[in-house]
Amino acid sequence: MSMPGSSRCILFWPVPQRARPNRRGADKDMSESNHLSVMVEQVVRLLRPEGCELIVDCTAGLGGHAEAILSAAGRQGRLIGIDVDESLLKRAKKRLEVFGERVRLFRANFSQLVEVLDQSAEGKVDLVLADLGVASAQLDDPARGLSFMADGPLDMRLDLRLTRTAADIVNTMDRTQLADLIYAYGEERFSRRIAGAIVAARRTRRIARSLELAEIVSKALPPAVRAKRRGVHPATRTFQALRISVNEELTNLEILLNSLPRVLKPNGRAAVISFHSLEDRRVKHAFADLVRSGQGRLLNPKPITPDAEEIKLNPRSRSAKLRGIEMLISGSSDGAKDHDQRNTDRAVGGTGVHRDVRPGADGADRN
Ligand SMILES: C[S@@+](CC[C@H](N)C(=O)[O-])C[C@H]1O[C@@H](n2cnc3c(N)ncnc32)[C@H](O)[C@@H]1O
């Protein structure tokens, strides 16, 4: 099958050493960002890619999981990689280049999975993986404003086409809405105090930098609470809430979870790695609904978590939870029709990365 955007002669087999997964998915080419894919072995064991033909990695990131899964799938395996972050997709493309035409990358939101599959003229798929959240490369890039540890513009968009930044939220939302947002998406008990401090601070000037916000939030917490949360930065929950809101993370996750029965073949499997309880709860409930309706079977009744060795090597993995489901029957393949029809356009010459042209979606973040 021909792959748009990729016309070079492709090496199919044998898979060179570079394409074999190393134990922890360490990305040698990405040493500057210290990127380690989470629970690579567990994901491969859970999804059992051997012999699979079509795999979707909904969060391609730097390509670590994609590389491991495709290597395990064998030479008939093809992978569609999706990510909203074009800069990471370019790096994934380099890493996955060795698989040639077996890999197609799309710059798209995974909430558009149905449309991406329509666009790529693919039918149902064998495997779907979503490794939620952000990559270390994004977190460590001060220009993204995702971290309370490094100063940068208070942006937090993973998809730079989105129009609303974290700075827009903290500088314009009214106090009650801001408190509700920090409570709902950050599960922060002190949301009202924090919202009050933000509103007071912005009276004198616009809050524009990540460290500025981190300091406002820290000072808003009672000293006893700050002391009790030792080891966890006081702004952690507020930053999580803003990131979730800016990127509409929970809405997108729900759309993805709802699309699984439509995109997976019977016996097709999906795995999701979540990093906090708001995500994990949604995954758990969506999978339970599929089991209750007789459409699916849990691959692991209890979530799989990283072992002590991995957590030591990659402390950011400590909150990860992996859940998997296998479809017993398949839903209607006519998914795109009852789905919000968002545009995806064709390949962009040269990069081999396909783009969608969805305008920055704004609005409903609330559950
Ligand atoms: C934890 S990283 C994935 C790392 C990847 N599994 C690897 O091994 O390199 C999460 C990735 O998901 C992407 N992402 C987050 N939300 C997304 C969404 N709604 N649609 C598509 N990509 C998304 C982020 O840009 C980031 O690259």
Describe this structure in words.
- The protein is an alpha/beta fold and 367 residues long.
- The chain has 2 domains: 17-137 and 250-356, 3-Layer(aba) Sandwich (Rossmann fold); 162-247, Orthogonal Bundle (DNA polymerase, domain 1).
- Helix content is 38%, strand content 14%.
- The chain contains 14 helices and 9 strands.
- The protein has helices at 40-47, 64-73, 86-96, 113-119, 136-139, 166-172, 175-186, 191-204, 210-220, 223-228, 236-247, 249-263, 277-292, 308-313, and strands spanning 54-57, 78-83, 103-107, 125-131, 264-274, 296-298, 321-327, 344-347, 353-356.
- α7 crosses α11, α8 packs across α9 and α12 (249-263) runs parallel beside α13 (277-292).
- The termini are far apart.
- The structure holds S-adenosylmethionine.
- Residues 25, 37, 59, 61-65, 82-85, 88, 109-111, 131, 133-135, 158, 252 line the site of S-adenosylmethionine.
Structural class based on helices, strands and sheet pairing: alpha/beta
Mean pLDDT: 84
Discrete helix count:
14
- Which distinct ligands sit in these coordinates? S-adenosylmethionine
Measured by DSSP, the beta-strand proportion falls in 5-15%
- Rounded to an integer in angstroms, the radius of gyration calculated over CA atoms is 21 Å
Number of strands: 9
Query: What is the fourth-level CATH superfamily of the largest domain?
Result: Vaccinia Virus protein VP39
Strand order of the largest sheet: 6-7-5-4-1-2-3-9-8
Terminal CA distance reads 41 Å
Approximate helicity band: 25-40%
CATH class of the largest domain: Alpha Beta
Overall 3D geometry? globular
Question: Might you state the CATH topology name of the largest domain?
Answer: Rossmann fold
The run of helices and strands is: HEHEHEHEHHHHHHHHEHEHEEE
Summed up, the domain count is 2
Largest pleated sheet: 9 strands, mixed
